[in-house]
Task: inverse folding
């Protein structure tokens, strides 16, 4: 009988990569295909950033940001086949998390060591039974370094900008490609250069450049990798 990922032990699939490299879309569809949970860790950093901006916290004040992270309840509800819904102190805030303001400040908030400790602990709790596709910046290296499948997803800057520009256009927002590029490069720079858990390619990760791949081609590639690692 042919073996399928579904018929075997449910493992952890960890995906990292820079902004707009296709992580969320790919991870969500992959999770759906395998009947796994999808975990969008970026949404947790975005939730804390949203709260800090709402409370007018100085984004460079690490102490206050750490206290805020200790105090608030960020609840991420992974649901089968659906986007994660994000709650902060029982208020659903999912629709506020991709605003230009949150985009601008989230990487700065994500440099704070204590903030990361708190959110990483929650992410590990969610993934403790396996059967999860988790994506972010430090998933293959720090959150789930023991994940059975580790992927680093990348795409050219030009393509990443085109993707975000197209998303804006579909939302009726006319944005400038130069501004999108500057925003992505700004976040990539902070995310890769920070001291705690920087974005980097794990030596154990399989790198997939999806610049010229469709979403389903990317998902298929990862499904093949998952099947191969189950076959070993
Ligand atoms: O979707 P996009 O790639 O634009 O961003 P995201 O995955 O929602 O992550 C937003 C920001 O959160 C990133 O630019 C990082 O600064 C931070 N982040 C992180 O530090 N560690 C993670 N595991 C996930 C996100
Ligand atoms: O999560 P991350 O920021 O890495 O990227 P995303 O939000 O999954 O993808 C950014 C945009 O690129 C989305 O609108 C996707 O539909 C699109 N995309 C694409 O056109 N082709 C791919 N191979 C992957 C993503």
Result:
């Amino acid at each position: 009988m042919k073996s399928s990922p579904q018929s075997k032990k449910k493992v952890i699939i960890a995906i990292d990569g820079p902004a707009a490299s296709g992580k969320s879309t790919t991870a969500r569809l992959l999770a759906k295909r395998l009947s796994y949970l999808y975990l969008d860790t970026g949404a947790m950093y975005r939730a804390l950033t949203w709260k800090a901006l709402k409370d007018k916290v100085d984004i460079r004040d690490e102490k206050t940001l750490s206290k805020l992270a200790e105090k608030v309840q960020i609840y991420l509800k992974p649901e089968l086949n659906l986007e994660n819904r994000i709650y902060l102190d029982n208020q659903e805030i999912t629709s506020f998390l991709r605003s230009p303001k949150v985009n601008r400040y989230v990487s700065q908030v994500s440099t704070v060591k204590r903030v990361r400790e708190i959110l990483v602990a929650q992410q590990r709790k969610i993934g403790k039974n396996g059967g999860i596709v988790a994506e972010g910046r430090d998933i293959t290296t720090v959150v789930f370094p023991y994940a059975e499948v580790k992927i680093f997803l990348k795409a050219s800057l030009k393509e990443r900008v085109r993707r975000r520009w197209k998303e804006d256009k579909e939302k009726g927002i006319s944005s400038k490609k130069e501004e999108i590029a500057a925003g992505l490069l700004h976040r990539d720079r902070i995310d890769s250069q920070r001291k705690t858990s920087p974005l980097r390619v794990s030596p154990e990760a399989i790198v997939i450049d999806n610049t010229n791949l469709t979403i389903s081609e990317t998902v298929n590639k990862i499904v093949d990798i998952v099947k191969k690692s189950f076959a070993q």
